[in-house]
Design a protein that fits this description.
This protein is mainly α. The protein has one domain. It has two helices and no strands. Helix 1 (9-114) packs antiparallel against helix 2.
Length: 170
C-alpha cells in the first residue's frame, strides 16, 4: 500500500486549500507592493507637474509685470510730451492773440486814415483788409488746432511703437 492512501481525503483537500490560499496571499502581497510603488511614482509625478506649473506661472507673472512696466514707462513719457505740448499750445495761442490784436489795430488805423479818401477807394481797401485779416485769423486758428492734433497723434504713435519695441525685445 502506498503511503499516500494512508492520508485521509479531507487532509488532501485541506493541504490543497492551504497551498492555494498561500499562493493567493503571496500574489496579493506582491500586488500591494506594486500598488505602493505605482502610488509613489504617481505622487512624485504630481509633485513634478505641480512644480512645473508653479514655475510657468511665475515666469508668466514676471513677463506680465515686465510688459506692464514697459507700458507704464511709455505712458509716463507720453504724458510728459502731452504736458509739454499743452504748454507750447498755450504759448502759441498767446502769440496768436497778440497777432490778432495787431490785425485789429491795423484795421482800426486803416479805417481812420481811409476816411479822407474817396468812398469807392475806401470801400475797396477796407473790404480787402477785412477779408485778408479774417482769412489770416481763421487760418491761424485752424493751423494751431491741426498742429495740436497732429502732435497728439504723433506722441500717441510713438508711445505705441515704444511699447511694441520693448515687448518684442524679450
Amino acid at each position: 500500500m502506498n503511503w499516500l492512501s494512508a492520508v485521509p481525503a479531507w487532509c488532501w483537500w485541506l493541504i490543497t486549500l492551504m497551498l492555494v490560499a498561500g499562493g493567493q496571499e503571496i500574489r496579493v502581497g506582491a500586488g500591494k507592493s506594486e500598488t505602493l510603488a505605482a502610488r509613489s511614482e504617481l505622487s512624485s509625478y504630481r509633485l513634478e507637474v505641480a512644480e512645473r506649473d508653479r514655475r510657468a506661472a511665475a515666469q508668466a507673472r514676471t513677463e506680465e509685470q515686465r510688459r506692464q512696466a514697459v507700458a507704464d514707462e511709455a505712458g509716463r513719457k507720453a504724458d510728459e510730451k502731452y504736458t509739454d505740448l499743452e504748454g507750447r499750445a498755450v504759448a502759441a495761442e498767446s502769440r496768436a492773440d497778440g497777432l490778432r490784436g495787431e490785425i485789429d489795430r491795423l484795421r482800426a488805423g486803416h479805417r481812420a486814415t481811409c476816411n479822407t479818401i474817396a468812398t469807392q477807394q475806401r470801400q475797396a481797401r477796407t473790404s480787402a483788409v477785412v477779408v485778408l485779416g479774417g482769412l489770416l485769423e481763421e487760418s491761424d486758428r485752424m493751423a494751431g488746432s491741426c498742429a495740436a492734433a497732429l502732435e497728439r497723434s504723433r506722441i500717441a504713435g510713438q508711445a505705441c511703437e515704444a511699447i511694441s519695441d520693448e515687448i518684442r525685445k524679450k
